[in-house]
Amino acid sequence: MKIVVMGAGAVGSLFGARLAEAGHAVLLVARPEHAAAVAAHGLTVRNRTETVVRLSATSELPPHLVADAALLTVKTFDLPSASHRLARSLDRPVPTLLPQNGLGFEEAVRASLTGGGWVDPAAWMVPAVNTVPATWIAPGVVRAAGTGEVLLPQAADPPTPGSPVGLFERVLREAGFPVRTVAEFDREVWRKLLVNAAINPVTAIRGVPNGRLLREPERSEALALLREALRTARACGHDFSETEAIADLDRIAQATAENRSSMLQDLDRGRPTEIESISGELVRRAAAHGLDLTATRAIAEEIRRRVVRSARRPQPS
Ligand code: PAF
After folding, report:
1. How many structural domains does the chain have?
2. Which of 18, 85, 192, 306 is catalytic?
3. Which domain holds residue 13?
């Protein structure tokens, strides 16, 4: 199959590499320095060993792109423009995977795909909850930084192999990713949101890998954020017990102990972060239920300040 990975940073590149190894013709659409390095030398994936995977890469979408499926792996703040450009470039709508963190972006993607010429874009969009971690090392080099899985929404009827969900279920599994389809997909989105709300801001502010959240003082900071997110989840109708939410946090912190969270990687690279679709969205939804998330609001403010400060620093290319 021809698969385009739009926004190939750490996670998109890792997914692209595994899909290419499984025999698909993968095109990474990435920032110029990464695309140039991959096109020239292949993509190096570090794990315990180091593998070089040959695949196509570009920084410019061609005008008449032919593909059978797309992975939209840009960060949430880039989704509207990236989905619009993808729809304009592809010769027809294709099943499109959306493995983003956070909430509240699907409507914007739908509108952008429609603006790019797709009729009924929702029929092609496959939201996913991804916990497979990846770390950006340098242009052309990423690290597979632990274990995770990909959750997909279970269709009301069992998905057929040709349906968008069925297609991603098959190709991702064949490429070696643990994949599960889940009936209560929204609940799983919230489950991941609880974890991201606790892990991402604390690791980003403290500059530490995820595993540090298993120790003090980071643990108490993460737990305070987790409890606020949990109150919001309950107010929004998603009931998780505190024991369950802490167990999820510990499991993911352990499984991705060596990983630098995506928010920390963004701050490191002087890029915008997903703070709005994670903590910002929680604060807004909590407020709609009369709740004030003091710790979440404060850490989100600090992240916003850091983004502004790091954007002013000269950035490595
Ligand atoms: O955003 C991230 O970094 C990831 O969602 C996760 C699972 C927290 C691993 O680092």
Report:
1. 2
2. 192
3. 2-182
